[in-house]
Specification:
membrane; cell membrane; antiport; globular; transmembrane; mainly alpha; Na+/H+ antiporter NhaC
């Protein structure tokens, strides 16, 4: 049997070019409906192109290719399970009146002019406390999106503020998995990494917050205070609103702060939401159970369906009816399908050596120090697009550039900061990346709709390269 040959650069970019061309056609034909299935098919066909090049040109065996695909999908399984539990949590928190209560009190407290500014600040605080952008977006993010809709604001704009705040914590919290992963790969310690990130992260966040403040004061909403009052009345008439309902999200936040893994924390939050539904919202359970089995069986069916099928609660107010629906675990299946085929493509590209060849070629062309930073940043974004996973976008470039940074006399925290400034925050901007597809599904907002407003995520890669070009806070290795 012939030995596996290393790919050339031309062979390596064939699947990438095919993917880009097909996705462009999809955008033209399907527009915003690409995630319904056509993008999944394109990724599947792109994986087939990788397989053809790998098997017929590089002598990669079928078993080797499949091992790479299976390992890549296996790495995404925690994200898939988290997505399922987020679907269940969204259903029970709606049934229990938790999300409606967040929307209700938020509308009473938040002024429309400062709403976007408050959104990015609130999400930043919660994500720093929990270390999880996913949990932040799935809980307070959903409530803030509901408030924004009620105030007549664009879904993409509000989602951009939510994601900007949530990913600030994902970068800066010592509880965050990416914040721990980046310094480990680059070869520095956690708190040195966090301190060094402050130089680029704080300016990016401050600029993003100011932009949202300016937009908020200049936003001309078509919704009047009378409309808001009608929403408040509709929520009051549908649910038993009480501050006690906030005990459930507080419980989830405490569990995550106490370093309880995300899966059990979200499961506990989902079950707590179901219990709260029985205790605080019996009228909702009874209304949904109408026509089902008698007695306890009907309540059991409602609670189960709220987790796997979601709930939809009708209201006379059109805005409120739009807020009071969730699709449960079932609503996540299309997202999971996209993650599976995206990870298959990334796994095939990696095991065939094509990803390594592309990044190796890029590194070989770098001569200047600024070029090295720009190259590392570009490689991280490239891996988010091709490997479809932010962890691979941190680990692989981190390993590849470690020696190059050392040879330039650059301390490892330069690399770890670059990894976080690019790989962590841009993952949510790619429609088929695990982060991008997860957040667009949870919020119900297309990636293309919120991308222009994710100011923090867009500014962070620019800031890290700008600091390198201006020689600001570039630490050297001590002799």
């Amino acid at each position: 049997m012939n030995e596996h040959r290393k790919p050339t650069f031309l062979e390596s970019i064939i699947p990438i070019l095919f993917l880009l061309v097909m996705l462009t056609i999809n955008v033209l034909v399907f527009k915003d409906d690409g995630l319904s299935g056509s993008n999944q098919v394109v990724l599947m066909l792109s994986t087939a192109v990788v397989g053809c090049v790998a098997i017929f040109r590089l002598n990669v065996t079928w078993d080797t290719l499949m091992d790479g695909i299976v390992n890549s999908i296996g790495a995404a399984m925690p994200s898939i399970l988290i997505l399922l539990l987020i679907g269940a949590l969204a259903g029970t928190w709606l049934l229990g009146g938790i999300v409606p209560a967040m929307v209700y009190y938020g509308l009473k407290i938040l002024n429309p002019s400062i709403f976007l500014f408050a959104t990015i600040i609130i999400c930043a605080i919660v994500s720093v406390a929990t270390g999880s952008s996913w949990s932040t977006i799935a809980t307070v993010g959903l409530a803030l999106l509901g408030i924004g809709k009620t105030l007549g604001m664009s879904d993409g704009l509000v989602a951009g503020a939510i994601i900007s705040g949530a990913y600030f914590g994902d970068k800066m919290s010592p509880l965050s998995d990416t914040t721990n992963l980046a310094p480990a790969v680059a070869g520095t310690d956690l708190f040195t990494h966090i301190r060094y990130m402050l130089y680029t992260t704080v300016p990016s966040f401050v600029i993003a917050a100011i932009l949202f403040l300016i937009i908020g004061f200049g936003y001309d909403s078509s919704v009047s205070q009378t409309d808001v009052q009608e929403v408040l009345v509709a929520l009051e008439s549908s649910f038993n609103i009480s501050p006690l309902l906030f005990l459930v999200p507080a419980l989830v936040v405490v569990l995550i702060i106490k370093k309880v893994p995300a899966l059990p924390a979200l499961l506990i939050g989902s079950l707590a939401g179901a219990i709260v539904g029985i205790v605080f919202q019996p009228q909702i359970v009874e209304r949904i159970a109408s026509g089902m089995n008698e007695g306890w069986q009907s309540s059991y069916m409602v609670l189960m369906k709220s987790m796997y099928e979601g709930v939809s609660i009708e209201s006379e107010n059109v805005i409120v009816s739009g807020l009071l629906s969730s699709s449960g675990m079932v609503g996540m299946l299309n997202t999971i399908w996209l993650i599976l085929v995206a990870m298959a493509f990334g796994g095939a590209m990696e095991v065939s050596g094509m990803l390594h060849k592309i990044t190796e070629t890029i590194i070989s062309k770098v001569t200047s120090e600024t070029g090295l930073f720009a190259s590392a940043a570009s490689t991280c974004i490239f891996f988010n697009v091709t490997a479809s996973d932010q962890y691979l976008a941190i680990v692989v470039p981190g390993k590849m550039y470690a020696n190059a940074f050392k040879e330039k006399g650059l301390a490892p925290e330069n690399l770890s900061r670059t990894l976080e400034d690019t790989a962590t925050v841009t993952s949510v901007l790619v429609p088929w990346n695990t982060c991008g597809v997860a957040q667009s599904t949870v919020l119900g907002v297309a990636t293309g709709a919120y991308l222009p407003y994710c100011f923090f995520n867009l500014l962070s890669p620019v800031m890290t390269v700008l600091f390198a070009a201006l020689k600001i806070k570039i630490k050297r290795i001590d002799n």
